[in-house]
Design brief:
The protein has about 140 residues and is α+β, with helices and mostly antiparallel strands. It has helices spanning about 1-15, 25-30, 65-70, and strands spanning about 35-40, 50-55, 60-65, 80-85, 90-95, 100-105, 110-115, 115, 120, 130, 135. It starts with a helix and ends with a strand.
Length: about 140
Amino acid sequence: MKHYCTLLAAVLMTTVACVPFENNEESRGNSFLSSCFLMNSSASDQPSAASITTFNPFTSELTTNAFSLANGAPLGNNVTDALEFSDKLFIAVSGSGKILNVNKLTLTKNSEIICEKDGETLSPMRLATDGTSIYV
């Protein structure tokens, strides 16, 4: 029974990580438009080691370090959440105290929000939306 629960949890987590996509020629040709995003958190002793791996189920293409490849810079340390909002992907990077606003089709960084209060770096953990705004 324990193995079935573990398998079910793994399937659900993978399904949630997938961006909804259409089965058409345009989406099959764009590796990020039709991809599942796997957020890989880093170990606490490896700063800036978090990454995004993409998998395209139509082409079976797997791209490791997709964010770094698209931006020429590391993602940061300890990814804790990601939220799709319109044509953007917001990524909470708690170990680096920032939220990234990324183009979900290309994974290029649009902007970055540094989370701090009174000069102290905060660690954003979870993201939520009501359809019009993003909440941390």
